[in-house]
Amino acid sequence: MKTTRRNFAKVMGAALVVAPAVQAAIDPSDPLHDFEKYLSKDELDRIHKDVAESAPFLQKFREVRLKNGDEPDFTFNALAKR
């Protein structure tokens, strides 16, 4: 099926109508909600603890603003001799 501007607009309009209902069904407070049945209570607690401990570092990391000309601090070489 060829995508036309009209079909694209219809799909996007439908997505805007459906998206709030889908978002309401998802629990945003716990991103691990879908994995609770696969993880034990101890594993979930450890994951939450690790995320909480790394949150301050990640916030500082997000605050660093790079300019367009900033280069990486190293040069990657897959065949580097050890």
pLDDT < 50 stretches: none
State the end-to-end distance. 53 Å
> Average pLDDT, to the nearest integer?
78
Instruction: Provide the number of structural domains.
Output: 1
Q: Order of helices and strands, N to C?
A: HH
Helix content: 40-55%
Give a short account of the largest sheet.
none
Describe the protein in words.
With 82 residues, this protein is mostly helical. The protein has one domain (5-63). It has helices spanning 5-25, 41-63. The radius of gyration is 22 Å and the shape is extended.
Short descriptors:
82 residues; extended
Please outline what is shown here:
The protein is an all-alpha fold.
Give the helix/strand layout.
Layout (H helix, E strand, L loop, with lengths): L4 H21 L15 H23 L19
